[in-house]
């Protein structure tokens, strides 16, 4: 019995469902209301109270990047992490970098105003430049010809950043500055597993527009929220 507790547009949940699908693992998906958390979520993830949660028999695994590693170690078909220890370390490094830097900076650039917006946008561009450098000389994906761990970890860039750019009137994914990232995004979004498992653009747009308005009304700036 495999269950995935998730939230429809969560980048953290999607990377897990993409991994399960790439490996051909059947699972039951349970949608969670993250604004009114269910007793199930609180019981399964009492520490962080967040999705995704993967339930595999008696095992309960939380934290999306930890879940990806659990999936890769449990179902050996279609390996996600590279084979060499150094390449594995590198993939984990960039996944963490993108989460701690680019995700935070691009989100804040979308929600904030004035000097904060300018600084976060500048930082997001610098972050993406580093990721672009990592993609240079690679094949279709970060791991070469097959979609792997780092592609799944960074997949949110392909469907969330364009929405955030629209809503926040910012440009991050400049195809001239970032040709490798642009090509990677295209390959990623065209992959049959990804294409079938992406949140609808209109609803995603509406969700983040509303979130942005709420955050600005509440604290004036997302980094304080
Ligand atoms: N580091 C966590 C982040 C998970 C996360 O932030 N999930 C969000 C949905 S996108 C959530 O459950 N939010 C509920 C909350 O913050 O209370 C992971 O990688 O799994």
UniProtKB/TrEMBL annotation:
Top-rank lineage group of the source organism: Eukaryota
Any coiled-coil regions, as ranges: none
UniProt KW Repressor keyword: no
Transmembrane segments: none
Signal peptide: 1-19
Catalyzed reactions: RX + glutathione = an S-substituted glutathione + a halide anion + H(+)
Protein family: Belongs to the GST superfamily. HSP26 family.
Domain GST N-terminal: 1-79
This protein's name: Probable glutathione S-transferase
Any one GO CC term of the record: cytoplasm
GO molecular function, one term: glutathione transferase activity
InterPro entries in UniProt: Glutathione-S-Trfase_C-like (IPR010987), Glutathione-S-Trfase_C_sf (IPR036282), Glutathione_S-Trfase (IPR040079), Glutathione_S-Trfase_N (IPR004045), GST_C (IPR004046), GST_C_Tau (IPR045074), Omega/Tau-like (IPR045073), Thioredoxin-like_sf (IPR036249)
Domain (GST C-terminal): residue spans on this chain: 84-206
EC numbers on record: 2.5.1.18
